[in-house]
TrEMBL record:
FMN binds at residues 97, 151, 222. Keywords: Flavoprotein, FMN, Monooxygenase, Oxidoreductase. This is NtaA/DmoA family FMN-dependent monooxygenase. Residues 441-464 are annotated as: Disordered. Its EC number is 1.14.-.-. One of its GO terms (molecular function) is monooxygenase activity. It comes from Streptomyces actinomycinicus.
């Protein structure tokens, strides 16, 4: 008997401000005007995607002591954008990246519970930590947390938020539509938490939301991050986009779930993925090469090399050879506010490897950055891309993808119009939403009892 086809999960990542985006394209639009967010979200909803995903930037990036001017446009507040999008969409999930290192559980839990009510049960929280003391300078607490302490705080942060969400049980809410002020049980919303990182008590003032709790995402790839996802997350945002790497990551993370009393289907693996479409595979490949050259200008290539070399390389020609000097290994780094800095644990070894690659392939600095950086995940005609995505998911290398187009805000449109119908024809992607909440879209169980009576503060009451 053949194995049943897995249903593919698809989401859309609003590109924000980074070198993935091709600003020079005439079709490129604003990254901060609300009309861009609306266009992007409505395209994703028209295509029946599970959710829209927003990343987070808490400080402008700097390089060499000045603002990094190649990808800084600004990034609006996550909750403000998602709350506004809740009013112009009906079914699309709304996922926000919120930092557990610099925020407080009560505040974040209250914001997500409110968003879940406003959206009728479509909120999700991508829980991240921050190693970056530079970013922390923007916050009262500031400072630096070692990796183990960051994850310890994140675990307790999430557990505390869950205590707040769960402090309202379904049978404690009196359905008084006239006032919304009466409680069946005086304990409703009461909480006490005393732990290593948080010592709080009081009363949570947002009733149980339509999903009970927001869907929880996690994005770490370290051992601590994988365990955190296996123990507490509903989905993990992965960077592994090749079949072999994807299968290894998928198997590893899913195998950890049993340790925490969970089944493999209780955690979804969703890698980020880029795409380039053409009428033919050859046309798409040619376009992909041009897109990469637009994404990596000469100035961008030099800046990228400085991440590794940790020294000013502005005097070097991006179309010339790599520097023959070694990187500067120091706790002080030329780049601040970039997670990329942490990717190169041994910069001297990386520089040696890159010089060998450049020499063997006769690559300039720019050529090297283009060929060693993140390239498009799916390239081809719509039929080829639909086939490749389906093959990837059916081979248990992922449960779906979070798509990152290179044009804002219209870059998702060709995928929605040309690839999604082919996935629907294959029977591996929905033709319409079957439920109303993000948990429905993702096939996730509702955490705990929810009454049939309409709760005070519900989405329907707000809309009436």
């Amino acid at each position: 008997m053949s194995k049943p086809l897995k249903q593919i999960h698809l989401a859309a990542h609003f590109p924000g401000v980074n070198n993935t985006t091709v600003w020079s394209d005439p079709a490129a639009g604003s990254h901060i005007e609300f009309s861009s967010f609306v266009h992007f979200a409505r395209t994703a909803e028209r295509a029946k995607f599970d959710f829209l995903f927003l990343a987070e930037g808490l400080r402008l990036r700097e390089q060499g002591g000045t603002v990094y001017d190649l990808d800084v446009v600004g990034r609006p507040d996550t909750f403000t954008v998602l709350a506004a999008l809740a009013a112009v969409t009906d079914r699309l999930g709304l996922t926000g990246t919120i930092n557990s290192t610099f925020n407080e559980p009560y505040e974040v839990a209250r914001q997500f519970a409110s968003l879940d009510h406003l959206s009728g049960g479509r909120s999700a929280w991508n829980v991240v930590t921050s190693w970056d003391a530079f970013t922390g300078e923007n916050f009262r607490r500031g400072g630096f947390l070692p990796q183990e302490e960051r994850y310890s705080r994140a675990r307790e942060f999430l557990a505390t938020a869950h205590e707040l969400f769960d402090s309202w049980r379904g049978d404690e809410i009196l359905a008084d539509r006239a006032t919304g002020t009466f409680l069946r049980d005086a304990r409703a919303g009461a909480f006490v938490h005393r732990g290593q990182h948080f010592d709080i008590h009081g009363r949570f003032d947002v009733p149980r939301s339509p999903q009970g709790r927001p869907v929880i995402f996690q994005a770490g790839d370290s051992e601590e991050g994988r365990d955190f996802a296996a123990s507490d997350a509903d989905a993990i945002f992965s960077r592994h986009s090749t079949l072999k790497e994807g299968q290894a990551f998928y198997t590893d993370v899913k195998s950890r779930l049993a340790t925490y009393g969970r089944r493999p289907d209780q955690l979804l693996i969703l890698p980020a993925a880029t795409f380039v479409l053409g009428d033919t595979d050859q046309e798409a490949a040619e376009l992909a090469r041009e897109v990469r050259r637009q994404q990596v200008s000469g100035a961008t290539a030099i800046k990228h090399l400085e991440f590794v070399w940790n020294r000013d390389l502005s005097a070097y020609d991006p179309e010339g050879p790599l520097p023959d000097v070694d990187p500067v290994v120091s706790e002080e780094h030329i780049s601040r506010g970039r997670a990329q800095v942490r990717m190169y644990r041994d910069p001297v070894a990386v520089a040696r490897e890159w010089r060998q690659l450049a020499e063997a392939n006769k690559w300039s600095i720019r050529d090297l950055v283009i060929n060693t950086g993140n390239r498009q995940t799916f390239v081809g005609s719509p039929a080829t891309v639909a086939r490749d995505i389906n093959d990837f998911v059916q081979a248990d290398a992922a449960d779906g993808f979070i798509l990152v187009p290179h044009i804002t805000p219209g870059g998702l449109d060709p995928f929605a119009d040309q690839v999604v119908p082919l996935l629907q024809e294959r029977g591996v992607f929905r033709t319409d939403y079957e439920g109303t909440t993000l948990r429905d879209h993702l096939g996730l169980a509702h955490p705990g009892h929810r009454p049939d009576r309409r709760t005070a503060g519900s989405a329907e009451r707000a809309a009436s």
